[in-house]
Amino acid sequence: MKDYLDNSNKKMKLALQLVSGYGGEFQSWRLPDSNERAYTDIDFYVEMAKTAEKGKIHTLFIADTPSFGGAGGGTDISTRSPAFPLEPMVMLSAVAYATQKIGMVATFSTTYNLPYNLARQLKTLDTLSKGRLGWNAVTTGTRETAYNFGDAPLPNTTIRYEMAHEMIEAVQTLWGGFSENAYITDKTTGIFADMSKIKPAFYKGKHYQVKGALPIPATPQGQPPIFQAGPSPEGIELAGRFASGVYANPFTIDEAKAYRNILKQSAIRYGRNANEINMFSGFMFTIGDTYEEALARRYKLLDFMSKEEFEGQIRYLSAMIGVNLHKLDVNKPLPESLQNQAIPHPQDPRSPRAVELIKQGMSPKEVLANGVINYHPVVVGTPKDVADFMEKWFKAGATDGFSLAPDSQKGVKDFVEKVVPILQERGIYHTDYEGSTLREHLGVAYQYSVTKIH
């Protein structure tokens, strides 16, 4: 791999996903130490953000889509907490007032918004937070969302990414129209603003057009950095052109290194420095003072599932390892003969881990408790176990940092109080913020107006 994957002189960067206020496990709202009303408790959400700030976490991250948003993107929240929070712009306004340094990144659709409204809202929140906002620009590819915006069918992938490029161009053009030195406010001369330095956008694309100027001055970081999520070729091109941060979902170090290399190369193709784009690998964990304590917590989450849901997980695990588990005692290790028959499913990158744990003698239930079918890699164990995983990936050049999805609310506090000190002692995580803006936290340059393509 190229030397730009070398992290030997770098510190890892961290984003924290609070999901809908509960953590990454949709049953965690039932845990005795959870605030079961966190979904609508803005004060509690703010306290979680303040805890993250104590741990010097670079930014919060809110995944979102403008539709119902149940667990896993579905609409059934009869027993599981939602996958998405209340409207993120409003949520982050409350967080901005209660915090001083931590960044705030939220997802806003490039398909189901209009440039002027979105540019105005994002820049207002960036102003309110004194330059701590980032925009995760996502094309939104679900029919459920399309239904919420009229009868038109969901645009195909090509069109959605055409719209995404135009939306970001239009929004950045609007952001840069109010020149940095146009905001005068001179009481003596009576000049509030220099109108010769405030330019209309006059942006005309195939999908979006906007003429007017945006009456909001530059923020301390100029304008919000762009984030991107999605590994498609179109997504990689969008990231290479615009993104300062990318949320990724690799399951192995080799997979992560390959994807990080692709992202860096995409940035280079657009005339950017490879280090201008930071990859955040999704990572989940459950922390205990011992492995057994952490495992007991994971068992409790499994026990909260309905019989049908748990059987569905057993069925999924069976497919992952090529062994029918339904007639076996899921609380006991597989017979050695069946362990030897287990093979990874070739189309599921999580399968090798599942097979590895089965062959270590874990029961199917313990394998599930170790998160083998979660949407990110999972560590169940001590603070040191969590730190070891992160250090191994980071030092291997597999990622610039992690997008953390703790199992629960308690996981946020445990990470800040127990894992952060270990990472700091090992010299791979900062001891204080590098500045006051999100761009400074990310180590990317000040920017104002549209991204230049060389």
Automatic annotation (TrEMBL):
<keyword id="KW-0560">Oxidoreductase</keyword>
<dbReference type="InterPro" id="IPR036661">
    <property type="entry name" value="Luciferase-like_sf"/>
</dbReference>
<dbReference type="InterPro" id="IPR016215">
    <property type="entry name" value="NTA_MOA"/>
</dbReference>
<keyword id="KW-0503">Monooxygenase</keyword>
<keyword id="KW-0285">Flavoprotein</keyword>
<dbReference type="InterPro" id="IPR011251">
    <property type="entry name" value="Luciferase-like_dom"/>
</dbReference>
<keyword id="KW-0288">FMN</keyword>
<dbReference type="Pfam" id="PF00296">
    <property type="entry name" value="Bac_luciferase"/>
</dbReference>
<feature type="domain" description="Luciferase-like">
    <location>
        <begin position="38"/>
        <end position="399"/>
    </location>
</feature>
<dbReference type="GO" id="GO:0004497">
    <property type="term" value="F:monooxygenase activity"/>
</dbReference>
<protein>
    <submittedName>
        <fullName>NtaA/DmoA family FMN-dependent monooxygenase</fullName>
        <ecNumber>1.14.-.-</ecNumber>
    </submittedName>
</protein>
<dbReference type="InterPro" id="IPR051260">
    <property type="entry name" value="Diverse_substr_monoxygenases"/>
</dbReference>
<comment type="similarity">
    <text>Belongs to the NtaA/SnaA/DszA monooxygenase family.</text>
</comment>
